[in-house]
Amino acid sequence: MKPQHLAWLAALATPALTLAQGSTTLYGIADAGVRHTAGMTAANAPGTASATSLASGVNNTSRFGFRSREELGGGLYALFNFETGLNIDSGSTANAKFFDRAAIVGLGGAWGQVTAGRQTNLLADAVSPVDAAGMRFASFNPNIATAALSSHGLGVEYGTAGSSSGSYRLDNAVKYTGRFGPVTARAMYSFGENAGNTSAQSSAGAGLAYAAGDWTVSGAVQRFKTAGNLSLQAFTLGAAYQLGSVRLAANTARSEADTSTTARTEQRVQSAGATWSVTGAVDLTAAVYRLDRQRTGKREDGYTRALLFAEYKLSRRTKLYAELDRTQWRDGFQGAANRDRATGITTGVLHTF
């Protein structure tokens, strides 16, 4: 870890560990598993051979962070959150930015909450409660990767993402979240901060969710721009229903992106799945995703992916899990030299703190 990162940790950990001067909390997830794939590389890209590796974050993304909330009186409160992703297999941070997952400060009250800094886009917020796999396997889950733009694969930076591979989180962002009974309303604007062009790399969106009884319905729309004012527009809409010990979930999402002044890519993701709480200690999850992609001048392609998870809770914070997956590529999505199908199996342990 770099010296400046150690300095950050020392500064932040002191109040977290003493606790006497405030309510700062150190928290995180450690997830590691042994994974074997056929027709995919160890990084889950299409391939021709088999691979066995130690994988991080298959069930849930490994991370740690600091957060705090201070009551200011009159129903007003202040908060902050710093969070970074980790690769448990190597001990490295997940991205070049140290606090890549969150770096926010905000105020809240009965009127809602406003946060400013690096934070998730509204598509990610909307997908989270209605994802078929419960937001498991983030790097492999099409709702996270494509619907919420974590790995959109477009090779262009949309919004102030700090990356040309995804726009799941944005810098320079202001977000409003208001909860009014069963309804949650969200709005977000990310400043592009390009000199002489205030709209370049900006992003704006709105979201709405309803949760009451056994039902949850959640959706969002958001627009992103590049430094050259190319546009990406996306929406997502889904629902979840608790039927006794079974949670059912389905979602539909679509994005349209200008990848150049003459080329456009459209991607659609449909998903459905269920989680069955067999006992208080055992959960079984099955999810199916279909991705369709249409690019200017090329035929439509895509893939269908199925995920199965079995989890056994050793305690409130620790669980063992096993995962199976199968991907069927369509119309050459995987590349001419690679297999048209791939499988994977993982067994691992997850601990939260």
From TrEMBL:
One Pfam family from the record: Porin_4
Entry keyword set: Cell outer membrane, Ion transport, Membrane, Porin, Signal, Transmembrane, Transmembrane beta strand, Transport
GO annotations of cellular component type: cell outer membrane; pore complex
Domain Porin: 7-328
Keyword Magnesium: no
Topology of the protein relative to the lipid bilayer: Multi-pass membrane protein
First-listed, main subcellular location of the protein, grouped into a coarse class: membrane
InterPro entries: Gram-neg_bact_OMP, Gram_neg_porin_domain, Porin_dom_sf
Gene Ontology MF term list: porin activity
Annotated signal sequence range: 1-20
Localization annotation: Cell outer membrane
GO biological process: monoatomic ion transport
Keyword Repeat: no
Subunit structure, interactors included: Homotrimer.
Protein name, UniProt field: Outer membrane protein (Porin)
Organism, as annotated: Acidovorax soli
